[in-house]
Amino acid sequence: MKKEYLTKNPAETKEIGEIVAKILLKREKPRKKALVLALRGGLGSGKTTFVQGFAKGLGVKEKILSPTFVIFKKFKIKNNFFAYFYHIDCYRIKEAEELTGLGIKEMLASPKSIIAVEWPEKIKPLIPKKSLNIKFTLKNEQERKIKLENFPPETYNRIKL
């Protein structure tokens, strides 16, 4: 199932991220591997803004900035099923192998991890087929089209934008 939403400002983009995180935390059960969100879209399309809201929904207190130059950031979260949230930005990555030395395979293998990947197409061989997909499209300076795909059905009903 997939559905599109139009946000009129960054606050609404963050709100969608926060709602999605809260639903995933409530719904989750023990997993075999990490829960992966694949965030696709051009520069300035709202990916990091969404992740800011998503992290807030997970209970992360730290300020979320794009990890373009450090590649990824790790945040501890308190939940029965998850212990860590990873925000990965692959914008500067040329090929997937560049991330293996940083522990990406271990992150993906851990059932205690939630991972948001910006620019997942750059590391396509590593992205699980059952990832939750989010596509961001820049409509104008403020508005964004956000398309959610493969999410639990109740996610689509809870977002009221």
Task: Name a few traits of the molecule.
161 residues; alpha/beta; Rossmann fold; 7-stranded mixed β-sheet; 4 helices; 7 strands; 26% helix
Runs with pLDDT <50, length 5+? none
The strand order across the widest sheet is: 1-7-6-2-5-4-3
The CATH topology assignment is: Rossmann fold
Q: What is the second-level CATH architecture?
A: 3-Layer(aba) Sandwich
Describe the structure.
Helix 1 (10-27) packs across helix 2 (47-58). The two termini are 18 Å apart. It contains four helices and seven strands, in the order E-H-E-H-E-E-H-E-E-E-H. 26% of the residues lie in helices and 26% in strands. The protein is globular, with a radius of gyration of 14 Å. The model has no long low-confidence stretch (mean pLDDT 91). It has a seven-stranded mixed β-sheet. It has one domain: 3-Layer(aba) Sandwich (Rossmann fold), CATH 3.40.50.300. By secondary structure, it is an alpha/beta fold.
Describe the protein's topology.
Blueprint: E1 2-7, H1 10-27, E2 35-40, H2 47-58, E3 72-76, E4 84-89, H3 104-109, E5 113-118, E6 132-138, E7 144-149, H4 153-158
Parallel strand pairs: 2-5, 2-6, 4-5
Antiparallel strand pairs: 1-7, 3-4, 6-7
Helix pairs in contact: 1-2
Short description:
This protein is α/β, with parallel strands linked by helices.
